[in-house]
Design goal:
CATH class of the largest domain: Alpha Beta
Radius of gyration: 20 Å
Distance between the termini: 40 Å
Shape: globular
CATH architecture of the largest domain: 3-Layer(aba) Sandwich
Number of helices: 8
CATH superfamily of the largest domain: L-asparaginase, N-terminal domain
Oligomer: single chain
């Protein structure tokens, strides 16, 4: 049976359009259809591809409704025997959250490769076409699996990827875990294992059936942090809070006291570190559950945990 790649478009800078070819910052994201992005890449001419426009947004405006639709389309495609992999075109601002969401919800045994760009499609030298070609290389690589982000020749696993620069072409890193590998001259040089997570049972079904998503926010600890923001969120009905702590997850005493009050009122809590690299080691002061993820991905985890519960 011939194998095909399913491409799902969601917009982003890779589909952006600027007023002129020199405009790398003032462009509008999510303007070029995914079928047109693929049509402009001759190297993909011999690949069996089907494409669908799932969304057309600037990824800063990513919503849980878009994530729900994307997860459903991925699940449907992954279940088809003739589908080898999924490639998703996505904006860079929230691509790490989408990658982790799909990895947690679907635990895919086939590759889901998220491709992005730092320059719009109309730039004089856009990076999107090469990132797309690299994404297809990863998607077709024997043994590839799980959700990964491909950008500037690097392959980043869903749990570790994070945006580390606001405008450089190689804007992503994987912290001290390191990237899964590199795409070099049309081949993947693999450095470590592909992402794997345990299947989540009924989680995907719960996501599709949910009438609303649990409200979870991130609060950040720092000099002079004030617990009143926590009290206000609790009063407004927040369901979960991720505390982005300093260093090894330490929290300002005022903020931690407010979080304790929130916990007594039934709000679910998690702790992450503001640090770009490393994870929380041991048990920091207090007993808030520590996450090895970035605050943004710890928030995704807490949303999913609340849905599963």
């Amino acid at each position: 049976m011939a194998q095909r790649i399913v491409v799902l478009g969601t917009g982003g800078t890779i589909a952006g359009r600027g007023a002129d070819a020199s405009d790398h910052l003032g462009y509008k994201a999510g303007e070029v259809a995914v079928k047109d992005l693929l049509a402009d890449i001759p190297l993909l001419a011999g690949v069996s591809v089907s494409s669908e426009q799932v969304a057309q947004i600037d990824s800063k405006d990513l919503s849980f409704d878009v994530l729900r639709k994307l997860a459903a389309r991925c699940a449907e495609a992954l279940a088809q025997d003739d589908v080898q992999a999924i490639v998703i075109t996505h904006g860079t601002d929230t691509i790490e959250e989408t990658a982790w969401f799909l990895q947690r919800v679907l635990a895919p045994a086939k590759p889901i490769v998220l491709a992005c760009a730092m320059r719009p499609a109309t730039a004089i030298s856009p990076d999107g076409p090469q990132n797309l070609v690299d994404a297809f290389t990863v998607a077709r690589h024997p043994g590839a699996r799980g959700a990964v982000v491909v950008c500037a020749g690097q392959v980043h696993g869903a749990a570790d990827v994070r945006k580390v620069h606001p405008h450089r072409l190689d804007a992503f890193g994987s912290g001290d875990a390191g990237s899964v590998g590199y795409v070099e001259a049309g081949h993947v040089r693999q450095l470590r294992a592909w992402p794997q997570t345990r299947p989540q049972g009924t989680l995907a079904a719960r996501i599709q059936a949910a009438s609303e998503w649990p409200w979870v926010e991130i609060v950040t600890s720092g000099a002079g942090a004030d617990g009143r923001v926590v009290d206000a969120l609790v009063a407004a009905g927040v369901r979960g809070l991720v505390a982005a702590g300093t260093g090894n997850g330490s929290l300002n005493s005022e903020l931690e006291s407010a979080l304790r009050r929130a916990e007594e009122k039934g709000v679910r809590l998690a702790r992450a570190s503001r640090c770009l690299d490393g994870t929380i080691v041991g048990t920091p002061t207090g007993a808030l559950r520590a996450s090895a993820l970035t605050p943004a991905k710890a928030r995704i985890d807490l949303v999913l945990d609340l849905l599963a519960a």
